[in-house]
Amino acid sequence: MGSIHFIGGEKGGVGKSLTTRLLAQYFIDRGVSFAGFDSDQSHGTFSRFYAEFTALLDVEKFDSLDAILETAETYPETQILVDLAAQTGKHLNQWIEESDVFGIFAELNRTAYLWHVMDDGADSMFLLEKLLAQQPAGVQIVVVQNLGRSEDFSHFEQSATYRKAQEQGVRFVTLKKLQPNLMQKVDFSNLSFWAAANNRDLMSIAERKRVAVWLDNTYAQFDPFLSQGLPRLAATPAAPFEEAPGANLIQFAQTHENYA
Q1: Average pLDDT, whole number, for the chain?
Q2: Distance (Å, rounded) from C-alpha 2 to C-alpha 34?
Q3: Rounded Cα gap, residues 228 and 122, in angstroms
Q4: What is the model's pLDDT at position 228?
Q5: 232 vs 205: which has the higher pLDDT
Q6: How far apart are CA 75 and CA 65, in angstroms?
Q7: Domain assignments of the chain as residue spans, ordered by start
Q8: What's this model's pTM, rounded to 2 decimal places?
Q9: What is the three-class DSSP state of 195?
Q10: I need a labelling partner for 102 at 20 to 30 A (CA). Which of 43, 92, 195, 199 fits?
């Protein structure tokens, strides 16, 4: 069964969409189908880079959020990525509570992950502490320490919050920093990470190699808890969204030049 991944952190600018993009590319490179949802109505960073695999989500509307559950039931082998914009927790939590969302995932035999992407600020730590206090049974929390936003997590790693996270079985991912000018070039060129590592027209050989090394380092962080039991794509499923940007939203049966 595919897993459900909510990538958040509540705080803006910590790298939530970046983490979601990396997860999307990870599943593509592992030959695993996924469906993406982007809750950022104003920027839509995730959907901008992976538009063919992503639908927009309005967290203030239950019927929009319900598309996550419909996709989970209809496509049991498909991984689901939900990129959560900052300050969406209130509406999302109301939907989760009133719909018993994690109970539904359990019925569907779906593992749920809550990704908390953070910088080294105290507010990120306090938000994590709140998440730990509310951790639903059977739900795996993953903490992403984004070195692209902050360089010193020592205060967090010496805190009671960090120790509590360890006691609750939280997974930790350290996201290394990609050279800033190179990251800016990737973003301004609207490149998927695969294209950034392979496009000879836009990227130099050194730039392509740096992206490839960065991806390999990131995937090594994901593999210990995501690689086991990943369902491999057998055939192209139909698009799970009514407003799909193309004929087939999930298109992993055929190699796509922009992604893999």
Answers
A1: 88
A2: 8
A3: 34
A4: 77
A5: 205
A6: 16
A7: 4-178
A8: 0.89
A9: helix
A10: 43
